[in-house]
Amino acid sequence: MSIFVSRMQKIRKYHILAFTGMIFLTLGIASWLFPNEGLNLGLFRLKFIDKEQLLWEKEIVKKDISAIVESVDTSLLNIDDELTQMADSSDGSMGAPVKVNYSMNSASSVRTNKSFDAQIQMFFQKLNAVAEEKKKIRILHYGDSQIEGDRMTSFIRQRIQEQFGGYGPGLIPANNVYPTFTFVQGFSENFTRYTCFGGDKLASRKYGLLNSVARFSPEKMDSTSSLEKEAWIELAPGKSAYARAKVYNNVKMFYNSCTVPCTVSVYQGETVIHEEALNTDGKYHAMKLSFSEPPGKLRFVFKGTHSPNIMGFSLEGDFGVQVDNIGMRGSSGTFFGSIDQGLFATQMSELNADMIIMQFGGNSIPAIKDSAQVVNFARYIRGQLLTLKKLRPNAAIMMIGPSDMSTLIDGQYQTYPLLPYTVEQLKKATEGVGVGYWDLYDAMGGLNSMPAWVEKGLAGSDYIHFTNKGASIAAQLFYDAFMKEYLKYNGN
């Protein structure tokens, strides 16, 4: 014990000071020589604090998005044995627009090109005539989890239907699994969801426009195929839905691959209002119901030994614009190799899909590690867009690029390093194939803007997804850019 005390007594203050100085000198040399990006050691990457952070905390300049948020007007108008056969009871009058006097705020722009300009002008021509001629046209909005549950799409739909006509949410899945305020749906436990972008898949790949179907029996017949089964799906408007989406009087059910007898009974309350034996030729068909007024909750009861592919429903007015939300959680937008393209093209043609919005990138950005992967992703997207143009040559196609997204870098939330480069590569890819591009990343403030959206309650704590309020602001920013092109077409 005395030896230990004796040795401790020999340590002087200058020893401690010198030791501390040597530590800082060693750290300083290491931080100067160590690569900023770290060293890749195979299973992990070794990083060292950089020289700036060794002396002081690195300051990330926070974006001020007040001017962006305050300039956006998200206020909305408030309009609130023999089979039983249902007669066509609509008088064809549901769909008229409100004709809002639209005033242009400072708006971002759609990046256009010669080919896209020609196609968007054709679309605007149809848009101008749709209410007067009492026709229907469609905008398909595909996207990843940023739009699932009808976020962004619901607001865009309300704006467009107010201005140009139309009612109802349009296409909805046969068995929706994402929370949504736009409609209410229930289904029996024996319905299984099949998608082209994750989970159970169809061998036939006959998904249709929604890229998902529901079945109450396996695709391949098995030992239970001789037993009659019963299954059901219920649909009703959502109480919290935007005004135009709540109202519809035409209901369509799409199906294919029906090869054995299957009947559908439609209940309104406790009353059977329609019964139909589905066509057993295995092809694509639609069962259509028309009402004199919004029908409220409907229940579809299926009976058969083997299930057809129930491709989904469409809830519509008599005329106007349908804006369909097709959220595909986990998808990078590269799905055309997983579907029956002939069926996809046929359904697009039947439903007059004259504009298609592709909003992807959110699932890919976190996984991208270097610039070569960025280039490959942009090339994949380009290939998908080329396929889409072949399937629907005259449709105006627009891509909404990824939003700003943050990840923890040196203890602070910052933009994913390769996100800006990804945006630039996507712009080049879309321009090369005649597709328009709207830059959501730039519109919301650009580099390191996501933390400001989170602070204002406009994005979630994952620093990736918008809240409902944030989604409505992002949607209005897009609508302003869309209307900027429309007013330009009309000479304003």
What is the name of the CATH superfamily of the largest domain?
Answer: SGNH hydrolase
State the strand order across the main sheet. Answer: 3-21-18-17-4-16
The dominant shape is: globular
Biggest sheet character: 6 strands, mixed
Report the span from N to C terminus. 93 Å
Average predicted confidence as pLDDT: 89
Spatial extent as radius of gyration: 28 Å
The CATH architecture of the largest domain is 3-Layer(aba) Sandwich
Classify the helix fraction into a percent range.
25-40%
Work out the strand percent.
15-25%
The CATH class of the largest domain is identified as: Alpha Beta
- Uncertain segments are none
- How many helical elements? 13
Structural class: alpha+beta
Number of domains: 2
CATH level 3 topology of the largest domain: Rossmann fold
How many DSSP E strands?
A: 21
Features:
492 residues; 6-stranded mixed sheet; alpha+beta; single chain; Rossmann fold; 13 helices
Describe this structure as you would to a colleague.
The chain has 492 residues and is α+β, with helices and mostly antiparallel strands. The protein folds into 2 domains: 2-55, no CATH class; 66-489, SGNH hydrolase (Rossmann fold, 3-Layer(aba) Sandwich), CATH 3.40.50.1110. It has 13 helices and 21 strands. It has helices spanning 2-9, 13-33, 51-55, 66-70, 114-129, 153-164, 243-246, 341-350, 371-391, 419-432, 440-443, 450-455, 468-489; strands at residues 39-40, 45-46, 110-111, 136-143, 170-172, 183-187, 192-195, 212-215, 229-237, 250-256, 262-268, 271-277, 285-290, 298-304, 309-316, 320-327, 353-359, 396-400, 406-409, 412-415, 436-438. Helix 6 (153-164) packs parallel to helix 13 (468-489) and helix 9 packs parallel to helix 10. 42% of the residues are buried. The mean pLDDT is 89.
